[in-house]
Give the backbone structure.
Amino acid sequence: SQTIHQWPATLVQPVGSPLSLECTVEGTSNPNLYWYRQAAGRGLQLLFYSVGIGQISSEVPQNLSASRPQDRQFILSSKKLLLSDSGFYLCAWRGGTSYNEQFFGPGTRLTVL
Amino acid sequence: KQEVTQIPAALSVPEGENLVLNCSFTDSAIYNLQWFRQDPGKGLTSLLLIQSSQREQTSGRLNASLDKSSGRSTLYIAASQPGDSATYLCAVLRGSARQLTFGSGTQLTVLP
């Protein structure tokens, strides 16, 4: 069966510090991978998606970047965090036998102080 | 641009009631619609997925319908229980990479 992992689960960082959030998927190959953000009082917003290694598409301009160094690894980064980067970050995957269904990881709660 | 709206934003019902959550979307060119449940501080759990060619899907006490032409979906929960308390999100699948566009959710509280 497929599983998706995210870490860390919780992170508190000062403004201006770097960020690296990691997402890995097990039990499937060549998945589509997605990063979403859920900010306080706002809905879930798609940030990045990837259809393959090294292929990244951005939905909205922002202070963040994404990379996919391996087939089942998706990384969200920032060189300098802003207060507005605080939120709940969710990674998701799609593919395999459940082609049109997306499955979500447990999320990372990021607080920028 | 696809927009997804969920009504009501919050709902409180006594245990045992049947209830309906509503979702509407502006662009009918979707691949499917997915209903999720989110518990506080947790990730999303997929409840039901309706393909664009389908009219409804059922899982246990949950039934979701889709009227693509009118841009509407409903999630029906029968015989609600306190354990059903959560935020329910609907999302439509669009685009070549099958991205999801989410509604803002309905926060459901089932009172014992």
Notes: The interface with chain A takes residues 31-32, 34, 36, 41-46, 49, 51, 89, 91, 93, 97-105 of chain B (CB under 8 Å).
